Amino acid sequence: MSAPGLGDWVSPEGALFGLLGGVGLVLVAAGLRRRRITLAERLAPALRPRDATSGLLREQPARTPFPVVERLLAPWLADVARWAERLGSPRAEVRRRLDRAGLAESVDQFRARQVVWTVAGLGAGLALALLIGAARGFAPLPLALLVAICGACGFAACDQLLSRQIARREERMVAEFPTIAELLALAVTAGEAPVSALERVAATAQGELSTEIRRMLADVRTGAAIGVAMTDMADRTGLPSLTRFAEGVAVALERGTPLAEVLRAQAQDVREEGRRALMEAGGRKEVAMLVPVVFLILPITVVFAVFPSLATLRIGL
């Protein structure tokens, strides 16, 4: 009799339980290390004034239709959001992208949305894995890899949706910019002050760019200089045309140069840029249209041209 091997003593179920136990111990150790209290956290309660109101009696805003479930899951969602932040972009970059998309939600709300999308992807991957396992047999490693890939796809899809929202909003702002610039030039030429002209255009126009102008005017009313407020608007949007617009208006206000000519020149530049972008898009579409012509229509044409000759030769033989 041969000596029993390792496969005779180790069963697949035992190996799976051992793997799960090891992963659990690693997660617990990582959580304890991450939750280590720092010196600043130890000294913070003694240095800041404490609120005598109990934490259970404080008003906590609810962001979902289920406030009780939200409060119960808030610590877990915060931990998962911090973990997602390590894998994704930092908070400052996410805040900038949310401003570029025109969304009023906070970074924590976006992280929670990413967690929800990831969980939805994991659920879809688990359902797909169960269907494949029921049809072709259960293979733990490929099915687990499939579930992980689906969860990563859900995480990336949420980020990609934000990128598409940013691109669409920037396209609308670029399309609105020439009209806004022409209206500002007309108002300045008629004798309006720059701030009054911006207020008039923001009150009459509708769109993403007019919304940004109203936000910039709100900053001016709070005491910010118009040049600084326009620079902040250009930084929020991230568009080169708006950056040139803000710099041109700031220089015109500082040096007293004619503002109407600057606005008309910038509007013309944006129109030329849009025309070039349209021609480039047309060129790319033309190249893409060659794919079905070369790989579908041309082979069918060759078959129709050659097949009668082959049929005739076969009859002759």
TrEMBL record:
The keyword Membrane belongs to this UniProt entry's keyword annotation: yes
Organism encoding this protein: Xylanimonas ulmi
Keyword Cell membrane part of the UniProt annotation: yes
Protein name stated in the entry: Tight adherence protein C
Subcellular location: Cell membrane
Chain segments annotated as transmembrane: 14-32, 115-135, 141-162, 287-307
Alphabetical list of InterPro entries matching this protein: T2SS_GspF_dom (IPR018076)
Topology in the lipid bilayer: Multi-pass membrane protein
Annotated GO CC locations: plasma membrane
Domain Type II secretion system protein GspF intervals: 181-306
Pfam families: T2SSF
Chief localisation class: membrane
Organism phylogeny: Bacteria, Bacillati, Actinomycetota, Actinomycetes, Micrococcales
Keywords, in A-Z order: Cell membrane, Membrane, Transmembrane, Transmembrane helix
